[in-house]
Amino acid sequence: MEEFMVKLPDYLVSYGLRIIAAVVIFVVGRWVARLVSRLVEKVLIKANVEAALSGFLRKLCFFLILAFVIIAAVDKVGIQTTSLVAVIGAAGLAIGFALQGSLSNFAAGVMILIFKPFKAGDFVEVAGTLGSVREVGIFNTVLNHPDNRRIIVPNAQVTSAKITNFTAIDKRRVDMTFGISYDDDIRKAKDILMGLMKSDPRVLKDPAPLVAVSELGDSSVNLVVRPWCKPDDYWGIFST
Q1: Residue 223 CB partners (closer than 8 Å, separation 6+)
Q2: Model confidence over 60-88: pLDDT tens digits?
Q3: Which residue of 55, 78, 141, 234 is 20 to 30 Å from 190, comparing CA positions?
Q4: What pTM value is reported for the model?
Q5: Which residues make up the CATH 1.10.287.1260 domain(s) of the chain?
């Protein structure tokens, strides 16, 4: 006991210095983590990366650096961190297996936000579903269906299937078919249909609209009518 009391000041000085060093490492490390994560976000924003992705990557960068800082601070105190790192790694592996579906959705969301096959407001068909894109998130894409249903599609399904973006180009063709009797005047019918398209201000003059015979059916001559319009006018013209 007497020997312990003699060495106590040395222990206090030694461990006190270690604790102070660990606190300094943590404080400075946390400041560096914040600084680096903010710089990462600024770089991503300048690179026109979506705000949702840049914000998520900023937080991810911060917590990864902070984890290393905490391990370094704990090691400075004198606590063995080898077993701690092994436990964290095993826990991360177990969580990864448990959340593999969510992780695949996250990876797909990152790809969508980077390559931007569509953006909010576009009318698309993804995973066999039609709708206007309301939101592109990290884990799923939210669509508004034309009949006002809200559809949430996991991003993994979006990237694993064909994506059709109907509004990516500023012109869209409307394909319609009209049948007339074999006794009707084909030229007159074509003139009437062409006149209707030319009189509609929503129909673009370039490319020029088209009327042509597409099929000789069993009971009718089918005429294909193909006007061009702005994407926003598509359904209005199609249902006219």
Answers
A1: 177, 178, 179, 180, 186, 189, 190, 193, 211, 212, 213, 214
A2: 788 888 888 888 877 777 666 666 566 66
A3: 234
A4: 0.59
A5: 2-98
User: How many Å apart are CA 179 and CA 68, to the nearest integer?
Assistant: 72
Helical ranges in the chain per DSSP H: 2-46, 51-77, 82-98, 100-115, 155-159, 186-199, 234-238
Looking at domain 118-165, its CATH class is: mainly beta
Architecture of domain 172-238: 2-Layer Sandwich (3.30)
**Could you confirm whether domain 2-98 is CATH 1.10.287.1260?**
yes
Q: Where in the chain is the domain with CATH 3.30.70.100?
A: 172-238
Q: What would the pLDDT profile of 143-201 be if each residue is shown by its tens digit? A: 999 888 999 999 989 988 899 998 888 899 999 999 999 888 999 999 999 999 999 99
Neighbouring C-beta atoms of residue 56, cutoff 10 Å: 19
**CB neighbour list of residue 43: distance below 8 Å, 6 or more residues apart:** none
Q: Terminal CA-to-CA distance of the chain, rounded, Å?
A: 99
Tell me, what's the pLDDT at 125? 92
Q: Are the beta carbons of 156 and 108 closer than 8 angstroms? A: yes
